[in-house]
User: What shape does this take?
Amino acid sequence: MFDNCGGDDGERPGGATTAAASLAGLPREDKLAALRARMAAIPGRVGASEPPPLPATASGAVIPVAGGLGEALPERGLPRGGVVACTGRATPLIGLLAAVTAAGEWVAVIGCPRLGLLAFTEMNGDLARLAHIPDPGEDPLAVAAVLLDGVDVVVLDVPGGAAPSRMRAVLARSRSHDGVLVVTAAGWARPDLEIRSELAGYGGLGRGRGRLRSMTFDIHVTGRATRLPRTTRVQLAGAGTRQCCWTRQASPAVTVPTSIAQTG
Assistant: This one.
């Protein structure tokens, strides 16, 4: 069954035999102490003494995001093996997820019971590649850990937090699978990339009349994945029948009137 498994000599059965032989002459108490020390040194294990290392593939590898939203991100994508914090307005986050599924990747959203599925499809998102778990129960982190085994982007949209040792194990699993964990609330993990979205203006609305034709957002990006903080203005507008797209804006949009600033 395991004839085709890879690995160096230290990971093969012969290496395990050598390691066992090194403990053969020790008293029982010393054997237990040596085994506990080895288990504590395993990267990513709950209670590990060392933080999990980043895999070689995580450096520079991203999940591509097309369009204006991608232009707002470092390397035009979400960093694989990393943690991304998305705060502020929810519309750009839906746009990011739609772009990820349109590129052929898989997405899971934990929480967010009012997820805008219609907006997701209008932004060219692929519903067949989206899993939504609006009520994850008492342990949403356990649900996220399972999903990270096979889903490219997992969104944890619930308040709370977890012990550092447990969070470290979940992040190690994400990195080993080149996944992306997106959090929308503080307390879960220190993000590698922070994306904060602010509504900058509407288009098409006049004094008491008109039809909403566009929405403009300022996307603020900071974190370890960027050398300097950056802000990009993007616009969401119609692009045909029941479709819309994101484009980068070079000039400032009209200021949002106070009366409608809370509705976007």
